[in-house]
Design brief:
mainly beta, elongated
């Protein structure tokens, strides 16, 4: 999802993993992102990650990985610390920094419904 778009959770769910696709890692610097949540009742936004994902400009281009596998070279995997979301909680993507000339970062939060 695009930076700072807000997504409402339609059902109680469990976050299983985060998938990342990164087309171009850039020529200098590091790309870093986090995913924040807000309770349905409102209030503060909090990071669902205990470790934000970072992708160094030295990482390979056309890279895909998820938070449950070994980290590719130049990548710090996102570590999910908040896994349970309630109906109408909200999520948003926050781009903390972008490597110079980095392109086409896609992030997917993979969930499963919980009864």
């Amino acid at each position: 999802f695009p930076s700072h778009d807000i997504w409402s959770v339609f059902f109680k769910c469990y976050i299983e993993k985060i998938l990342v696709f990164n087309a171009v890692s850039g020529i200098s610097g590091t790309t870093e992102f986090k995913v924040e949540y807000q309770l349905a009742a409102g209030g503060a936004w909090n990071n669902i990650l205990s470790t934000n994902c970072t992708i160094s400009n030295t990482a390979a281009d056309n890279l895909s990985f998820d938070s449950t596998e070994a980290a590719p070279s130049g990548v710090t995997l996102p570590v999910i610390s908040v896994t349970d979301l309630e109906k109408n909680d909200k999520l948003r993507f926050v781009l903390v920094s972008a490597a110079d000339q980095a392109e086409n970062l896609r992030v997917f939060v993979i969930t499963r419904p919980v009864q």
